[in-house]
Design brief:
- It is a single chain.
- The chain is an alpha+beta fold and 320 residues long.
- It is 39% helix and 13% strand.
- Strands 1, 4, 9 and 10 form a four-stranded mixed sheet that branches.
- The radius of gyration is 21 Å and the shape is globular.
- The two termini are 29 Å apart.
- 40% of the residues are buried.
Length: 320
Amino acid sequence: IDTRWGRQVRLFSRVGIIRDMTDIARANGFSVDDTWAAIESEIAVDGRQYMYPCNVAVRLLWVNRATFAAQGMEVPPTRWSCDQFERIGKEYVSRANAQSDRQTHFFCDDVPLEVLYRSVGLSIFNETSTASALNDPRYAEVLERRRSWIYDLHLLPSPDDLSAMQVAGGWGGASPRLFNEGRLGLLYSGRYMLIQFRQFVLDGDEPLQLAVVEPPHGTFPNTRTTVRGAAIYRGGDHQDLAELFPRYLASELYNQLIIDGTDALPPNPRFVESRSFTHPPDWPNEWGCHQPFVDAMHTTAIGGSYSPFILSSDAERIRD
């Protein structure tokens, strides 16, 4: 079963749809020890494994170096605070729109609320997962700051801003195209965005001059990791054959496909320790941009927060 996010794993395992693969995974090289430590909450429930990833995403901020150079500005620091983000963003927006009677350039497409409230020490749930932890003055401050970034300082585009800008669509929506055109300085996304960046080049555009930095933080640097993976349906007639697929996902052949295709990170981290990952020969403009996603998985990446007492979809709907 194609399974996404830890909330699906919890729901499917609880109702008995998917199989506990802990023991066969340990015996066949696709256990939690054979993938990224940061995603355990996405593939395991109460210490038991129910999924192995097809790919692993972690989101950082892509930087278009050319747009910063055009404004006479340095690329933002790799790790920076929300105050720094705001200060640099105000200068960027002022310079980029100085010759226009309306705003056509923005600093960044988005900085998610989850990253921001985690960065000031909050989670969606309390320590026992029995109540929300967002009834906190710090959350109100985060909401106000993000609102200000959109509607007062215009660092991030509002939905109306995006609809007002005429831009062709494509994979990933309008933001990648705006980033490619230089109308966004930063783009919050994963390594998988290189699929679209490479397509721009194949369509005739110049290769983007790229860099990668972390999202801004309050006091605790963090970003979100997510997983798309495979779980084994408990009712299947061919359990022995089903076990072959996660074994394939952990193999060198499959992991190299993910590396070469830039579809996020491969499920098995030992395969990123190669020059073909860090320095793809046909894409020198990407050199230096792959390793930051690996580093984030080992340092700042955090999976989802889940409670056994409420559906995650309901909790997130109430939160948002």
